[in-house]
Design brief:
Blueprint: H1 3-32, H2 36-65, H3 74-103
Helix pairs in contact: 1-2, 1-3, 2-3
Length: 104
């Protein structure tokens, strides 16, 4: 994989995980307003974006597993960090949604 292809993959991961992160924050807002249906919808949408980012990551791992050399640049480290923190934030949001439902 050449450096340009790696950067495109990194930006794809960043874009999709960034979209997911925005949707998680929209879900938090909906939770605060007591709109649990909207919160759930936003969390489902966020998962769809995470899956897109995860697919780009999986494609990269498959290339590596097939023997292609992958030179990791700082942008890929950032992309991976962005994806993992977004996935964690979504998991927290799912737990918070259940708590909000119990107190309302």
């Amino acid at each position: 994989m050449n450096p340009e292809e790696l950067q495109v993959t990194a930006f794809e991961i960043i874009l999709n995980s960034g979209n997911a992160r925005s949707m998680v924050h929209e879900a938090f807002n909906a939770m605060r307003e007591g709109n649990f249906v909207l919160a759930e919808e936003k969390l489902v949408e966020s998962n769809e974006e995470i899956l897109k980012a995860h697919q780009a990551q999986t494609d990269l791992l498959q290339e590596y597993a097939s023997g292609k050399e992958i030179v990791v640049e700082i942008i890929m480290v950032h992309a991976q960090d962005h994806l993992m923190t977004t996935m964690t934030l979504r998991e927290v949001a799912l737990e918070m949604l259940e708590l909000y439902k119990k107190i309302n």
